[in-house]
Design brief:
Strand content: 25-35%
Oligomer: single chain
Distance between the termini: 166 Å
Number of domains: 5
Radius of gyration: 59 Å
């Protein structure tokens, strides 16, 4: 009988083995049945043998573990991947699959495809593609916000054999490999985003003050106890969780808090008054940004309008603008008028900067008052309103009689980072402004000034005006000097017509001295002889009226000629105490009269119009007589 073969997927079956045993038994029985007496024919019989070798599952070489530890203190942020690795060997050299299940139920292998967890697709975390035997398999799943914090996993290796696919029923969950089992073994831990539902700041806030941000925010996870959350406030929408922090500049960062983190910062001086973006972000301990409508939004920080103020120590009052030095002796120069361009110089500070947010001047106006010290003190409060104006001692900006010209120093540098800037005011003073120098009626005093500033305000808020600051530098050294000025009227002194030996008998002619400066006056009187050829007189008694023939009186024109005072020659003027008071009204100079009389000498023989010259020289009177 020729040999025969039965092939079944290249593997012998149990049924074929049993059939061969049966043939053997039949042959044996046959031999026995002949009793051994039948002659045998020499021949060889053959039988085909078959066996089916079953597929074996892949074997673990390196058991499964998490590639990146996903554990209580190293969780995987929702939305990122948890990754597993393992290595297996297949005895047939076939590819294998790494399967990660949610439970330890026996998985089902699939011919020519990936296996399925025992509980079906809902029981599966992930399954790899086909992996070459002895090569490392890697598989991952993207975690989701809705997943539990702690998630068990079980790993299997399976092949996809066409005839009888198999899974290794030995499951692993990371505990078999070297390393911290708690970090890379089951379960993997999902970190969820904090919730952030409300934020606010307590602005408007002045520069130099503190602004505070508060929030409603918390963390939903509890596997670690209570997860802290942190608030970041950025000046731009540039928060970077990888830092974590603001990409450029930030306003403030809170300390970690179990919930509702808050933070604050001082608004630096200067900071311009306007609205500033303040973008708010919340993260957890693992720098995972929060979810919620307020994440990345702006609370809008409003820096309030600060009130400007004059730096008192900088207020300097001095003489005419354009001087090469700060001359603190103020001198009047205009009789019966106003001397222009006295200067007040001072620094104005504003915590919002001297430059506004539109690159214009933050300070728009200043007011000044100028006064004699005791007339305005204490602290200038007696010279700061319209009713207190007095051209002798108090010049108030609120009065229409005083109109200074004020401007920001064009040479001053003003930037957003400058808190102060210099202002100057030029102003006039009347000729009657009280002197305070040595010998004056107010020698124990000085001249001072106060100033205040007004800014440009803020949208929805009117301009802010500061309080007056008084000059303190250089205190006591700004003096108003005595201004001797007068005007004499009554020229010519006309005595009339008289024969030799005759005269006026009294003092009918009058001259008047007006005080057109800031002092009281007396006078010096003298004269030249009179002749018809004046100013060249020959001195002859027959053609000259000598100076002493003129008399003056100070009390009345009716004073008898003989009771008057003889006029002195111009070479020896005589002091006359007429006590003209200091003028106190700008429109009405004070004055005093001198009365004149003459007697024509009897020695004159030459008739004609005699002419001469008398000298009236005013001098500052004693201050007690002003």
């Amino acid at each position: 009988m020729p040999p025969f073969f039965v092939q079944n997927a290249g593997k012998a079956t149990v049924a074929m083995l049993l059939s061969l045993v049966g043939v053997f038994m039949l042959v044996t029985l046959f031999d026995v049945g002949n009793g051994g007496h039948v002659a045998s024919v020499s021949a060889t019989s053959t039988a085909t043998t078959t066996v089916t070798v079953l597929n074996t599952p892949p074997a673990w070489i390196v058991t499964a573990r998490e590639l990146y530890a996903s554990a209580t203190n190293t969780p995987t942020n929702a939305g990122t991947s948890t990754v597993w690795t393992a290595t297996a060997n297949d005895s047939n050299g076939e590819d294998y699959y790494l399967l990660i299940c949610k439970s330890s139920s026996t998985p089902t292998a699939t011919a020519s495809g990936p296996p399925v967890c025992g509980g079906g697709g809902v029981d599966q975390w992930a399954v790899s593609g086909a992996v070459t035997s002895n090569s490392q398999a890697q598989v991952s799943t993207t975690t989701q916000e809705g997943w539990s914090e702690s998630n068990d996993w079980y790993a299997y290796v399976c092949d996809g054999n066409l005839g009888s696919p198999r899974c290794n029923v030995e499951q692993h969950n990371g505990l078999q490999e070297a390393g911290p089992a708690s970090a890379t073994s089951s379960p993997f831990v999902v970190n969820h985003r904090p919730t952030f539902t409300l934020a606010a700041d307590d602005s408007p806030t002045l520069p130099g003050a503190t602004v505070t941000w508060t929030t409603t925010a918390s963390h939903p996870d509890t596997v670690r106890g209570t997860d802290n959350v942190t608030l970041y406030v950025c000046k731009a929408a540039d928060f970077d969780a990888a830092i974590p922090g603001c990409g450029s500049a930030g306003w403030a960062t809170s300390s970690p808090a179990a919930s509702n983190p808050s933070t604050n910062t001082d608004i630096t001086i200067p900071t311009q008054d306007q609205d500033y973006a303040a973008y708010v972000y919340v993260t957890d301990e693992f720098d995972f940004p929060a979810t919620g409508g307020w994440q990345g939004s702006s609370t809008v920080l409003t820096v309030a309008n600060a009130t400007p103020y004059v730096v008192g120590s900088t207020v300097e009052l001095y003489d005419v603008f354009g001087s090469t030095t700060s001359d603190y002796l103020m001198a009047l120069t205009e009789p019966e008028g106003q001397t222009q361009n006295f200067v007040l110089r001072f620094d104005v500070a504003d915590d919002n900067s001297c430059l506004n947010s539109s690159s214009g001047n933050e300070i728009t106006d200043v007011d000044i008052n100028v006064y004699r010290s005791t007339a305005g003190d204490p602290d200038g409060l007696l010279c700061d309103s319209t009713g207190e104006y007095n051209a002798n001692s108090c010049y108030t900006d609120t009065s229409t009689n005083f109109v200074p010209t004020c401007y920001q120093d064009p040479a001053a540098t003003c930037t957003a980072g400058s808190a102060s800037v210099t202002w100057e005011c030029t102003f006039p003073l009347w000729y009657i402004a009280d002197p305070t120098d040595a010998g004056s009626a107010y020698a124990s005093e000085d001249w001072r000034a106060s100033a205040r500033a007004t800014d440009d305000g803020q949208e929805g808020v009117g301009p802010a005006t500061g309080s007056y600051a008084t000059s303190t530098a250089p205190a006591g050294t700004t003096e108003m000097t005595q201004f001797l000025s007068f005007n004499a009227t009554g020229s010519p002194i006309a005595y009339g017509s008289w024969e030799p030996g005759q005269g006026t008998g009294v003092h009918p002619a009058t001259t008047t001295v007006f005080a057109t400066g800031n002092t009281g006056l007396d006078e010096y009187l003298s004269g030249d002889e009179m002749c018809v050829t004046f100013p060249t007189c020959n001195g002859n008694a027959t053609s000259t009226i000598y100076v002493p023939y003129q008399h003056y009186a100070t009390s009345s024109p009716s004073v008898a000629y003989a009771a008057g005072y003889q006029l002195a020659t111009s070479t020896s003027p005589v002091f006359v105490n007429i006590d003209v008071p200091k003028t106190t009204a700008t429109t009405t100079p004070t004055a005093d009269d001198t009365y004149w009389g003459i007697e024509v000498p009897s020695s004159l023989t030459y008739a004609g119009d005699y002419i001469g010259r008398n000298y009236i020289d005013a001098v500052v009177s004693a201050s007690s007589e002003w």
